[in-house]
């Protein structure tokens, strides 16, 4: 028996039960390939789809798969400049589906996300008709305080490097509570319930995805 995998499954069951009281729909997939299939199963053919910046989405291969299928994709990576990218992000808020990961998820079923521009957290909160969150079980943290601390110190520095941002955390490897122009922690959002029942769907994956 893979004890880590078994523990992931037990934790996921607890979280999914807690999602229910928060009107969030939860699923558990053991592998990223199963998660990819689950995402595709949840999408309606011909719908419009946008997404937030996410290593997890790249790791499961969903964006490349969607480009081969019958969907209208709202993809900011096609932009020729920053202004066009922002316009595409705004259009994404009117999409049928928004795909993203979550920086952290508590055992109680809360989603915690920290964002720079805010387009990702904005779309989780309001706009797209459906939000599909894919998160590896390495994103599960016991409580809110620990989740925020872990995101700011373990996820934000590598994200600052990935996005080529000039932040102190990129240089020191830890959060410096900065107010720089490139600050990656401009928005800290806790999603404790879905106002629209089951608008938010979370796929927990029994692998380490993202950071």
Question: What does the model show?
Answer:
The protein is an alpha/beta fold and 211 residues long. It has a domain at 3-104 and 113-139 and 195-205: Rossmann fold, CATH 3.40.50. The chain has helices at 3-21, 32-42, 55-60, 62-66, 82-92, 119-125, 144-162, 168-172, and strands at residues 25-29, 48-51, 72-74, 97-100, 104-106, 111-115, 130-136, 140-141, 187-191, 200-205. The strands form two sheets. The chain has a six-stranded parallel sheet, sandwiched between helices. A four-stranded mixed sheet has the order 8-5-6-9, with helices on both faces. Strand 5 (104-106) and strand 6 form a beta hairpin. It is globular, with a radius of gyration of 17 Å. It starts with a helix and ends in a 6-residue tail after the last strand. The mean pLDDT is 95.
Briefly note the structural class of the backbone: alpha/beta
What name does the CATH topology of the domain at 3-104 and 113-139 and 195-205 carry?
Answer: Rossmann fold
Average pLDDT taken over every residue: 95
User: How many E strands?
Assistant: 10
Report strand order across the widest sheet: 1-10-7-4-2-3
Estimate percent helicity. Answer: 25-40%
Total of DSSP H or I helical runs spanning 4+ residues: 8
Model regions low in confidence, pLDDT < 50 over at least 5 residues: none
Question: How does the overall form come out from the CA principal axes?
Answer: globular
Radius of gyration, taken over Cα atoms and rounded to an integer in Å: 17 Å
> What would you say the CATH architecture of the domain at 3-104 and 113-139 and 195-205 is?
3-Layer(aba) Sandwich
């Amino acid at each position: 028996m893979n004890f880590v995998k078994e523990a992931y499954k037990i934790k996921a069951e607890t979280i999914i039960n807690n999602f229910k009281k928060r009107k969030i729909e939860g699923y558990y997939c053991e592998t990223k390939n199963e998660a990819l299939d689950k995402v595709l199963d949840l999408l309606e053919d011909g719908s419009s789809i946008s997404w937030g910046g996410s290593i997890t989405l790249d790791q499961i291969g969903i964006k490349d798969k969607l480009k081969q299928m019958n969907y209208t994709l709202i993809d900011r990576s096609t932009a020729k400049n920053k202004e066009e990218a922002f316009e595409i992000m705004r259009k994404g808020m009117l999409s049928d589906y928004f795909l993203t990961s979550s920086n952290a998820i508590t055992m109680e079923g809360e989603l915690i996300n920290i964002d720079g521009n805010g387009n990702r957290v904005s779309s989780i909160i309001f706009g797209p008709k459906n939000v599909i969150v894919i998160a590896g079980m390495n994103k599960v943290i016991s409580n809110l305080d620990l989740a925020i601390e872990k995101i700011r110190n373990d996820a934000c520095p590598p994200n600052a490097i990935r996005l080529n941002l000039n932040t102190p955390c990129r240089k020191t490897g830890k959060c410096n509570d900065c107010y720089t122009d490139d600050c990656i922690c401009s928005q800290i959002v806790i999603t404790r319930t879905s106002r629209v029942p089951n608008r938010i769907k979370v796929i927990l994956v029994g692998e380490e995805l993202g950071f």
